[in-house]
Amino acid sequence: MMEEVLVLNNFIAGTMLPCKRLLDSYDPSTGQVWAKVPDSGQLEVEAAVAAAKRAFPKWSSLSAQERANYLLKVADLLESRLEEFAVAESQDQGKPVWLAKNMDIPRAVLNLKHFAHTIPHQLNKSNVQPEAGVVNYTLREPMGVAGLISPWNLPLYLLTFKLAPALMCGNTVVAKPSEMTSVTAYMFCKILQEVDFPAGVVNMVFGLGPTAGEALVTHPDVPLISFTGSTVTGRHIAQVAAPMFKKLSLEMGGKNAAVVFSDCDLQRCIDVLKRGSFINQGEVCLCTSRIFVQRPIYEEFLEKFVEVAKDLRVGNPSDETVFLGALISKSHLEKVRTYINYAVEDGGTVVCGEGVDICILPEENKNGYFMRPTIITGLDDNSRCMQEEIFGPVTCITPFETEEEVINRANNTTYGLCASVWTSNLGVAHSIAHKLKVGTVWTNCWLVRSIDMPFGGVKSSGMGREGTEDSLEFYTESKTICTKF
Ligand code: NAD
């Protein structure tokens, strides 16, 4: 039986507004259209920005604690609907339901609670500097209407990581989630209505990047853009926004390395890198896609890692025993498969996964966008699979001999998001961590994320940092007041 297709509305000035033009949104696990998403353009963005602008004076004049109370109500309601949101996130994105239940939705709740609890304290910190005859102090003021643009891999998780600090700092918001994963953002708007969130403070405009996204980025009344997505789009946004002097935070792609030394705890390293390479179908910007293994343990590492990768189940996202669900779209699956062809053309060996092992799927998932975890060896560091972001369940493994060699090789990419280092020698761990050109280094762990720590990338992976203090800095402008006495 065909499920009823969900039709989404834009959320502007506290009201659900239908859009005449609609886009198809697919359930990646079946290949069927399951939602229709507004194909918004200039007019809808204009209306949303105008609503956010009208709501700004009142929202920004509330105390931080009053704003926090609103966010905490939203967080509580979201938490009480964890199951419903997790199922929707899975159906929209393709990830296993258990992952959405344990990671995406709890983290969205935490984002709201964390910034609701920390920003009032930070905003109220006094910063007074007396000098001879004068007293200086600074204010942190909201910027106005914040434009938030988010990707499809961690939809509600990344949206709320922007939304919560932007609102807590006193800004109003126009958000544009990915056209491929808009459903949980829409459900979130319904929660805002239920808790009587002040109208116009949060506006959600759904649609494509080059139309709805571009209209938001170029809008003169939006002084700040927080973007997470690909490096290609980030570069374009930077080019468009720079002449308008907009404040920008760009969180972009990665080509993240793991450096595995002979003296590491091999079992633990393999367990974590299995997640690090294949969780969320490898569709996490922080996923590991190049593993450098020190020569003496290379063969042993490869054999064990291939064994665990082959054991990972791929299939229906609602099956609790499945580790990988479906990739986001047909075209993305095709793109990832193209990289496997490149690997073969470039002289690599596909040890397991795509093209080697068969993906056995239930009947209802036969048209879904599934792929087995894939491991490639024998590639040159400058080959396409070692240089370009694939953003799927694909990782390349290569041996190395010395510390100095591996630092140069790990840094040999235009990206610089994160890396992990595996060794029992703490001195080596720190020394390597200092030399890797990335925003975050994990030693003997991966994806242990504290919201307090600055998050972001270097080189083509990003510009700016977000996290407790960094978000406060980004979503406010500081003003100095000097009084003579
Ligand atoms: P994308 O760049 O295609 O799209 C991201 C968002 O930007 C979407 O909402 C899209 O509609 C919008 N967009 C596209 N063109 C636009 C334009 N011209 N103007 C304004 N908005 C526009 O990225 P994606 O495919 O959705 O996401 C995958 C990418 O995101 C990967 O490269 C991944 O590494 C990256 N990512 C980075 C982080 C991080 O924190 N660094 C986190 C998650 C994902």
TrEMBL record:
Task: List each coiled-coil range.
Answer: none
Q: Does the UniProt entry include the keyword Oxidoreductase?
A: yes
Sequence ranges assigned to domain Aldehyde dehydrogenase in this UniProt record: 23-481
Keywords, ordered alphabetically? NAD, Oxidoreductase
Ranges that cross the membrane: none
Alphabetized Pfam families for the sequence: Aldedh
The record's section on InterPro entries has: Ald_DH/histidinol_DH, Ald_DH_C, Ald_DH_CS_CYS, Ald_DH_CS_GLU, Ald_DH_N, Aldehyde_DH_dom
Mind telling me which SUPFAM superfamilies this protein's record contains? ALDH-like
Q: Does the keyword Translocase apply?
A: no
Membership in a protein family = Belongs to the aldehyde dehydrogenase family.
> Know the name of this protein?
Aldehyde dehydrogenase domain-containing protein
Q: Which organism is it from?
A: Cherax quadricarinatus (Australian red claw crayfish)
